[in-house]
Amino acid sequence: MFKAVNLEIINAENEKIKNNLKFDYEYLQKKLEKKNININEIKEKIKNFQVALPTWGVGTGGTRFSRFPGIGEPQNIYEKIEDCAVINDLAGITQKVSPHFPWDNVNDFKELKEFADNFGIGFDVVNSNTFQDNSRDNLSFKYGSLTNSQQSIREKAIQINIEAIESGKKLGSKGLTVWIGDGGNFPGQMSFSNSLDRYVDSMKKIYSSLPKDWLVYLEHKPYEPAFYSTVISDWGTSYICAQELGDQAMCLVDLGHHLPNTNIEMIVSRLIDSKKLGGFHFNDSKFGDDDLDSGSINPYELFLIFNELTIASIKGKIKNIAYMIDQSHNVTDPIESLILSANEIVSNYAKSLLVNYEQLESYQDSNDPIKCMQILKDAFKTDVSPIIEQARLENNNAIDPISVYRSLNYKEKKSKIRKSSQGSSSGIV
Ligand code: AFD
Ligand code: MN
Ligand code: MN
Predict the structure, then answer these.
(1) Atom 3 in ligand 1: residue holding the nearest Cα
(2) Which ligand is nearest to the CA of 179?
(3) Which of 96, 152, 236, 318 could disulfide-link 124, Cβ–Cβ 3.0 to 4.6 Å?
(4) Is 326 in the pocket of ligand 1 (CB under 6 A)?
(5) What is the rounded CA–CA span in Å between residue 31 and residue 168?
(6) Using a 6 Å cutoff on CB, does residue 258 contact ligand 1?
């Protein structure tokens, strides 16, 4: 197998800080022992944790106003996979990439799969894009895709999703995420009722093309690009549609796709109990679908989400939740942002493993909100970085991935090989 980052470099850097880590790990081990927590058991879970990287996330994003490309940006799916492999070699919990079709233009799937295999990279859930025109055929998505009033346009959108499934099958993927930008900008522009009916009809056709061992993930979003109403606006609508479609349809929670102050962790719990929680798009936000780095604004929320996931998995209510990152990096090197995001995600998962749920439930039952809050806060405040770093060390990844990455001058070197893209076009990604 080919390594995107030379293992000798990683080992040499690890060697320099290994002793410090040993000290920190043993100190945390003793602290956790007092609480009857076995640090090694947690570390093993961390070593097996996985979150998928978005192919579109390794390119520099943009806003409505402009895009400022970085140097050495990946220009095609092969180069994107190479960047994802760098992240995975350093951070180690990002073995799979989630492609976006037709953004990711692939001519030879066999060759692409072999290329990815060589880097130890696999393919996660595939995403379909029916929110941009791509109008070779005059069938524009300007007024919607799967819910468009014109049947021919709906058919085109259905076809794009079926093609995404076909592509995913060739790459070894096991799922499709469907997010549509459909909605209205003005009251009265579209019938809420007719458009939802059309969505369900279109999705039924896509659903019938799913292989039996696949899932389809329905992703909701309250606004943008439509600013008055969207067809799949919230988890309730998503749940109703998933229910209507059948067992292979699940709901996907993108952390940025909620109105401000929404209690996302409670939505997660509700979806778990209704057996429809399928996956996540991790990111963070201050105002809307900001697609900022995970845990950069509200890490406690991320922890509280994992708190719901961990208690549910202890109780046997969930398994195989699809974790993906969905971010747009406008001012940072996406590789660095994705490394830090993966680290935040796994760290908050680790913190949730520190919660004594029996104790929490007993305080809940005896109506002791202070103790309940303290149990969660104690776990959240614990610095779990020695566990995460030790897991990385044992998995042959970097104890300190950012500093190893910086020592590589990776983008600098790539800028000499990769041709740079134009700088002035706007666009979310
Ligand atoms: C949207 C959604 C969705 C989609 C993405 C494209 O988050 O997951 O695929 O943007 O960047 O807001
Ligand atoms: Mn998303
Ligand atoms: Mn989004």
Answers:
(1) 179
(2) 1
(3) 96
(4) yes
(5) 46
(6) no
Confidence of residue 136 (pLDDT cuts 50, 70, 90): low
Residue 98 three-state SS: strand
Question: HSE-up of 191 (CA within 13 Å, CB side)?
Answer: 8
Asked whether the whole model's pTM tops 0.85, one would answer: yes
Residue 101, φ and ψ in degrees, nearest 5: -105, 140
Q: Is the CB of 56 under 6 A from ligand 1?
A: yes
- Where would I find the H helices in 92-191? 109-118, 151-171
pLDDT at res. 40: 98
**Ligand 1 atom showing the smallest separation from residue 283 Cα:** 7
Q: Which ligand gives the minimal distance to the CA of 258?
A: 3
**Which pLDDT score is estimated for 137?**
76
The answer to whether the beta carbons of residues 21 and 386 sit under 8 Å apart is: yes
199 alpha carbon to ligand 2 midpoint, in Å?
Answer: 18
- Predicted local distance difference test score (pLDDT) of residue 427: 58
C-alpha–C-alpha distance, residues 126 and 165, integer Å: 7
Residue nearest ligand 1's atom 6 by CA: 429
Distance in angstroms (rounded) separating the CA atoms of residues 350 and 287: 27
Q: Which residues keep their CB under 5 angstroms from ion ligand 2? A: 254, 281, 326
CA–CA gap between residue 35 and residue 129 (Å, rounded):
48
Mean pLDDT of the chain: 96
Predicted confidence (pLDDT) per residue in 395-410, tens digit:
999 999 999 999 999 9
Distance 41 CA to ligand 2 centre (A): 32
331-388 pLDDT, tens digit per residue, is 999 999 999 999 999 999 999 999 999 999 999 999 999 999 999 999 999 999 999 9
Q: Whose CA is nearest to atom 12 of ligand 1?
A: 289
Per-residue pLDDT for 422 more than 90? Answer: no
